[in-house]
Amino acid sequence: MTNSPTHRKVAILGASRGLGRAIAERLQQTESVESLLCVSRKPASGETTLSKSEFFEFDLSKPDLSDLIQKLNAFAPDCIFYCAGGGPFSNYQQAKWSAHQWALRVSFLAAAEICHWFLGQQGASKARQMVMIGSSVAESQGDAQAASYAAAKHALLGLYQSIQKEKPKLDLRLFSPGYMNTDMIPAGSWPRQQSQSLWEPDHVASMLCRWCSDDAQFGGHMSLSLFADTPRKAH
Ligand SMILES: NC(=O)c1ccc[n+]([C@@H]2O[C@H](COP(=O)([O-])OP(=O)(O)OC[C@H]3O[C@@H](n4cnc5c(N)ncnc54)[C@H](OP(=O)(O)O)[C@@H]3O)[C@@H](O)[C@H]2O)c1
Questions:
Q1: Considering only CA atoms, which of 129, 133, 155 is closest in space to residue 207?
Q2: pTM higher than 0.90 for the full model?
Q3: Do residues 10 and 81 make contact, with C-beta atoms less than 8 angstroms apart?
């Protein structure tokens, strides 16, 4: 593995819980990381324990991202992790349209706009890597009760694959986890009732950070198996 010069300034969008939080905690311990910008609607419990981290409160479902982009311009990250995602768990017709709109905005549109902005930063700043979080569960097949979420994850995959064909200088990557032991998977839901193990977010964050620091994987897509103890998908 070739270790690239690691990041000095990292922005994590969706950093208060789950995978985003696990990434923030890992990068906090990484010597070469100088500062973290943690974005979410609420601070994480214990945010102050991350000494290198600054919290920025922002709702990624807002149609207007200009305040966030202004903040990112001032912070000037060399790496961005876009971790936020979600959507209604319901029959498509029964969920309110506003809930589907929320899913499309948070899980796709905001990521697409931040990616568009960050691609435009190349040359002018130290923009070096962006990692978008997809889903090996929902990005390449339908997902009953999660139609708008699955549509957003398909769109993210399509965006990533299309930009790669344009050969960007930015190291744009897609990382697609399987089912993780986070708030996104409610108690009693189907994945928690299986005999297979959910992925632990700390373990996933560790794999993700190692993969991101490997130059040989420039522009890559890493996809995990649906469960932690099932064979890994090719990527
Ligand atoms: N968990 C799984 O099984 C699974 C499987 C495949 C893919 N994924 C993907 O992995 C990523 C991380 O999932 P996770 O399980 O870690 O999710 P999670 O535990 O629900 O955490 C989501 C994070 O995003 C933030 N967020 C959500 N909505 C936001 C909004 N409107 N504005 C700003 N921040 C927002 C949340 O913070 P606040 O609530 O404080 O805003 C939180 O920090 C997502 O992209 C998800 O689609 C998850």
A1: 133
A2: yes
A3: yes
- Over residues 84-133, the pLDDT tens digits come to 999 999 999 999 999 999 999 999 999 999 999 999 997 766 899 999 99
CATH superfamily of 9-223: NAD(P)-binding Rossmann-like Domain (3.40.50.720)
Distance 124 CA to ligand 1 centre (A): 30
pLDDT in tens, 167-179: 999 999 999 999 9
Domain edges within the chain? 9-223
Binding site membership of 150 for ligand 1 (Cβ less than 6 Å): no
Alpha-carbon gap, residue 235 to 223, rounded angstroms: 6
Q: How many whole angstroms from 32 Cα to the centroid of ligand 1?
A: 26
Structure token digits, residue 153: 């994850």
Terminal Cα distance for the chain, rounded: 17
For 4-14, write each residue's pLDDT tens digit.
456 799 999 99
Among 12, 16, 189, name the best residue to mutate to test ligand 1's pocket (greatest count of ligand atoms within 8 A of Cβ): 16
65 HSE (CA, 13 A, CB side): 19
- Residue 25: pLDDT band by 50, 70, 90 thresholds? very high
Q: H-helix or E-strand containing 178?
A: none
